[in-house]
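Contributing new records

If you add data, match the layout below exactly. Sequence lines come first and carry their own label; structure lines follow with theirs. Keep one chain per record. Anything else will be rejected by the validation script.
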Amino acid sequence: MNRRISMLLAGGCALGQAFFLFAYHPVRRLVLGDGPALLVRHDRRVLGVDLDGFAVRDLGRPDGWVPQLVFVVLCAVLVYAVLRAVPGGRPRFGGTVLALSGALLLASGLAELTGPALDPGVHGSTLSAAEWLARARLDGVAGLPEQFALWTLWLPVLTWAQAWLLHRWASVGALLGAADGADDGAAPLLPTERERQDVVPAGLIPVVLLSLAGGRILRHSNVRELDPSSLTFDPELWLPYHPPALVDAWSGVLYPALRLRPLSTENTAPWLATLAICLVVLSVLAAALYAVAARARVGHPLRFVMNCWYATVLSAVAGALAEWALPAQAVPRPDLPDEQLLGVVLGDAVRFGAVWGWAPGVACVGAALLVRRRGERTRTSGNKEQLSHAE
């Protein structure tokens, strides 16, 4: 879509989100007169998703309103970028909705990470997985930015669909201009199916390495009981598991269910369930990276990276939904109510995608450039051979 329409839609979406986030509680206190008790309640849900938990409650502290501001600004920028990439002639509804979902979830993950960085009571700029879980138990809710992003997804989707439909009218088209996309007419970056297939493994490599590095020693309380008749002094069998200092410091942005190696004392059923979650993440990511590579255009490497970033976030969310749907006995996870557990696993997944999603994008862009150069050399040599045979 053209620049004017994209700016209007992204600005309108950001304005609506900002109005709700910053005005919801003041207006509710004014209308209902709930008083200070309102500040500690999260009692509004839409289809099981928290509605008012992310709204601004305290303007006196930076961590009470800066994450909301970061979310609104990032949403405006990312939604504008997504809409600019939409083809003007026949837009792809499914791909656009997924891209908008990834953009909003990415903004929510980055906004959530700014909260601990501004909290004076937090040592360091990040929280460990145990600290995020402790916060969820203390607050009684988790993943508030991510849940807010999910239920506000309808705002950019509906406004974009309405703008595209109304643009066919002559008066509206004359006011807004042509609905051309930013990359209309650009040549595909990877024209053949073989080239796209070669790029996908490069994008999976960073995620596989992360699953081997950090996930093995996170959230694994379900282990085999020791046989009383056996005597061993192996500390791995008797002492609680503690990750190394580096992994523990970054455990808040490592998705715990994404691990490919079993523990030596882990039961078979939890390991198979965790492996299934990991395979869901990698399978969805592979399919998404292939779709992104098929739509990549020459001259837009940053857009390619961002689309891969969205794909990483959405694949991690798919794994979180699979983890949440599994029975509590099947996979090791916190003992929390279903509504709170959904926020915990959703927050873990989105933070992982927000922090590490750039790595598959950079890997895919690098691999795409190498594959394209190799393909051009192959096609050039093939043309020369045909010309020589013709002569």
